[in-house]
Amino acid sequence: MKAVAPVNSKVEERESQVVAPSTSELDTIIDKIAVLESSNGLHQPTQCTNKGMINKWGYGVYGNNVMCFQNDEEAKETIKGWFKKQKDSGLEIEEMLCKYNTGRPTMDCGYLQSYKRLIN
After folding, report:
1. Which terminus of the chain faces fewer neighbouring Cβ atoms within 10 Å, N or C?
2. 3-state secondary structure the chain
3. Backbone angles phi, psi at 102, to 5 degrees
4. Share of the chain above pLDDT 70, in %
5. DSSP strand E in 3-118: where?
């Protein structure tokens, strides 16, 4: 099955508003983030797995901080909320993906290129 590729074209702008990815596109993005961050759960933070929790997405993992989730649904809702907040601040999907990984909203980064390779 070929993944939806919202990053291959610029995010549409309507009436000066950045249009967020659709729910299905966002689900695809979040699924691909899990592949990039942990090989879809194979390499999760031990701080989570030792507590019987998960974090396949690398979300909230930086420095000494490690966020853990009870289940996939909790994690995905949290990450969707993060993407919505980024969209509301005016970022395009490319910038969001780079910011997710590097903390900096740029239009191109190694993480974005890896994401694109996954969906093509």
Report:
1. N
2. CCCCCCCCCCCCEECCEECCCCHHHHHHHHHHHHHHHHCCCCCCCHHHHCCCCECCCCCCCECCECCCECCHHHHHHHHHHHHHHHHHCCCCHHHHHHHHHHCCCCCCCHHHHHHHHHHC
3. -105, -15
4. 83
5. 13-14, 17-18
**Tens digit of each residue's pLDDT (9 = 90 or more) over 31-80:** 999 999 999 999 999 999 999 999 999 999 998 899 999 999 999 999 99
Angle between helices 110-119 and 23-38 (to 10 degrees): 110
* Cβ atoms of residues 99 and 86 within 8 Å: yes
Residue type for 82, please? Answer: W
- Tell me which residue of 107, 100, 106 sits closest to 78, measured CA to CA: 100
Cβ atoms of 116 and 108 closer than 8 Å: no
Specify the pTM.
Answer: 0.80
List all residues 6 or more positions away from 15 whose beta carbon is below 8 Å from its beta carbon: none
